[in-house]
Amino acid sequence: MAVRKPDFLIVGAPRSATTSMQIYLRQHPQVFFPRRKEVHYFGSDLTRFSRGFWFVESEAEYLDLFRQARPEQLVGEASAMYLQSTRAAEEIARFNPRMRIIIQLRNPIDVIYSHHGHLLWAANEDLNDFERALAAEPDRAAGRRIPRHAIMLDPLLYRETTRYASQVQRYFDAFGHENVHVVIYDDITSDAARAYRGVLDYLGIDPGFRPAFDVANPHKRVRNRALQGLTMMPPELLRRLLRALPGDLAYRGAIFVQSLNSVPARRPPLRGELRRKLCAELAPEIEQLGALLGRDLRHWTQC
């Protein structure tokens, strides 16, 4: 059987419904997605602390993710930090110059705040106070104050996560505008079916298929933070044992434990002076992105 490479990638941004879009696309009979998300094979500049079942490091292991795809299916993969990476776009283009790229973008203030809550759940963050986590960015960029169970540094650089204009431009430069499809989160929340059809049209597959538009990856909290940390960054001896397990058994086991260790939660919206401060800080970036996409995004700065 011929080795399959992915035909398209969802490259980010985090907390912008990339998981939902992957689930919607996976339901389409003309699309194959592997079970795993966020394998981050590309992006050699990303700082990964975990060695084990979260990230894919060899090309053979990466291609093995897609071996069950049928010949008539398009193959996709989704890793949300590909967008923040300064090298991923060029690395992807070298791997497959004909790759089609899907970028999903959300109001950066909402992304930063939601991302902090998600990293708390994932034990990749240990500062519960959002403002303190923002203030810690310079230290963390220098390799200090890294949470014990963090599996990756780059998500902790919250503002860098949402430097959208330069991030999108890198993919335009590597693949051309015609091979990059940008989806705005607001369009998904207002009309998921229409946004989904736009993606199907872009991929050139049957736009009439309608999946179940369920909410995926909502905000949640952990019951036991120590247990969550153990699933994310096991001790070295346990990691060695887990690496010896066949297939993706260790990965699936960790996901199962995390599901049992999680409960739905509501996070109050970010309001007040900090939101206004972030709006003022990120307004030039939002204006630059709007010009790049030819879309008015000034409502993102109405704080």
How is the topology of this model organized?
Elements: E1 8-10, H1 18-26, E2 31-32, H2 59-64, E3 74-78, H3 88-95, E4 100-105, H4 108-121, H5 130-135, H6 137-141, H7 158-161, H8 164-175, E5 180-184, H9 185-190, H10 192-203, E6 220-222, H11 225-232, H12 236-243, H13 249-260, E7 262-264, H14 273-293
Parallel strand pairs: 1-3, 1-4, 2-3, 4-5
Antiparallel strand pairs: 6-7
Overview of the structural elements:
The protein is α/β, with parallel strands linked by helices and 303 residues long. It has one domain: Rossmann fold, CATH 3.40.50.300. It contains 14 helices and seven strands. The protein has helices at 18-26, 59-64, 88-95, 108-121, 130-135, 137-141, 158-161, 164-175, 185-190, 192-203, 225-232, 236-243, 249-260, 273-293, and strands at 8-10, 31-32, 74-78, 100-105, 180-184, 220-222, 262-264. It has a five-stranded parallel β-sheet, with helices on both faces. It has a two-stranded antiparallel sheet with strand order 6-7. Helix 8 packs parallel to helix 14 (273-293) and helix 11 (225-232) packs antiparallel against helix 13 (249-260). The chain is globular, with a radius of gyration of 19 Å. The model has no long low-confidence stretch (mean pLDDT 92).
